[in-house]
Model the fold of this input.
Amino acid sequence: MENFTPYSSLIGGIILGIASTLLLMAGRIAGISGILSNLIPPQSGDALWRVLFIVGLIAGAVAYPIFGGDMAFLNVNPYQLSDNAHYTLLVIAGLLVGGGTYVGAGCTSGHGICGLGRLSLRSLTAVLIFMAVAVVTVFIMRSVVGG
Amino acid sequence: MFNIISLISGLLFGFGLALSGMVSPGKVIGFLDLTGNWDPSLAFVMGGGVLVTVITFRFILKRPVPLFGREFRLPTKTDLDKYLISGAVLFGLGWGLGGLCPGPALSSLAYGNPKIIVFVGAMVAGIVIAKVLTGTFRKAS
Done:
């Protein structure tokens, strides 16, 4: 547990809750997969707020190290794969995450932070399923490739 | 006002994802690696987020219209259908493989890593494929 960061993770999580609260005060659910998928392709009158949210999402991540945040923890390749293998894995993972969150109507933010906040049974079900499947996937990956 | 609120919400969300550690696939895999060198940090992210929304959402949703918008647009489905279940399975599989979910993937574009750009491209392709296969793809209007 040498990488355990309870304080920054808790404060980060509370900020995600505040951001989701703010967007609900504008009438929308802060579900990132939904915000993105409804932009593909953009629909007139419904695109600007989505684009601005995503611009903010990127700018907020840019701001973190500028405000003194430590990015040393960033590890993009946890299974320590070769570049070719890792690119292949990321393409497969990206297709599954994009397709899965569209079909399942939400991801970690929409079902997790917002759906659980609304006490939605659909969201609780989705969260339990994707967490369980992800845990099993990591177990299998660790057994096969190590890292 | 609505659009400015959306921008501010996005800014906070991106900052929160970076601070929490969610933008690091290594951190995500460490959290999901229950039988290995488990790092429980990310439980505090969802815990902290839900702690806020479970309190604030009930007050916000008591209003007939939102403070900064014309109407609430909320999910209307209540049944646990095959789409919800199968979508969550596919997403869990992809999340465990790449260590990236949609929010951290988009916000990590900030750091200019070509691998993240490839992941986001594949994620967009995945959305298009799913829309075409489910017959819900609508042309730009």
